[in-house]
Give the backbone structure.
Amino acid sequence: MDPIVLTAGTALVTAMATDAWQAARDGAVALWRKARPEQADAVEAELVEVREQVLVEARKDSDTEQAMAGAWQVRLQQLLRAEPGLAGEIKRVLDEVLTPALEPAEQGAHRFAGDEGDRQRARPGLSGWSGPDHQREMNE
């Protein structure tokens, strides 16, 4: 799975529990409007539903947020596979919309150093991804 997708999916679900939720939702929906406009309204409705689950379940079970992040990582990966040129737009949404929507303590946990060639994430435990070697193993 592409590291930017891992980071974006996690940041999207984390942002669901913040005051900047609407900007995060709009940024994610914009990706679908660009690549698969016929699915954008359904994705928006699903994000609203998932947010409600995050708000309820996050108080009870931290594993729920990780599971939901995993689901959105898969959705974003499918979108990226269908539209490989969307990688830059996903990174832009992550950098300009999703990461700023997070609490300051969470922002550092979702940094992605893709521009520097170092694709190791600050929170590898969330996805099980630990760097380029593990990425290669996952793709084989």
